[in-house]
Amino acid sequence: MSVNHEMENSMAGIIFALIQVIQMALTLFVYILIASAIFSWLYAFNVINSRNQFVNSIGSFLYNVTEPVLRPIRRVMPNLGGIDISPIVLILIIYFLQMIIANPIAPALISLVS
């Protein structure tokens, strides 16, 4: 094996590992979006104690993580009254990005290694 071929294999492995980390981060963000939506429902219907400091810290964390990504989607979405479907739209966008990463990019890297 030549040194150039070994370097291509190691570079493809690094890029493949980076793609896996990006996929995991996107999946984790989907779980955070779902947790944020459930938390907002529980908070709105007074199921959880809103005066509890731990509950408020969880709520502020979820809000601070998800709101910068959801705000631009809410600006574009039409007003549906009290229904906020921006988390659903963002989850669909994330799944679309994951499919783009998984289908065209990953097989091209695998063919480089072969």
Please tell me about this protein's structure.
This protein has 114 residues and is an all-alpha fold. Helix content is 82%, strand content 0%. It has 3 helices and no strands. It has helices at residues 3-44, 53-76, 86-113. Helix 1 crosses helix 2, helix 1 (3-44) runs antiparallel to helix 3 and helix 2 packs across helix 3 (86-113).
Number of helices: 3
Instruction: Bin the helical content.
Output: over 70%
Strand proportion, as a percent range, falls in under 5%
Rounded average pLDDT: 87
Task: Give a summary of the structure in a few sentences.
This protein is mainly α and 114 residues long. It is built from 3 helices and no strands. 4% of the residues are buried.
Helices and strands in order:
Blueprint: H1 3-44, H2 53-76, H3 86-113
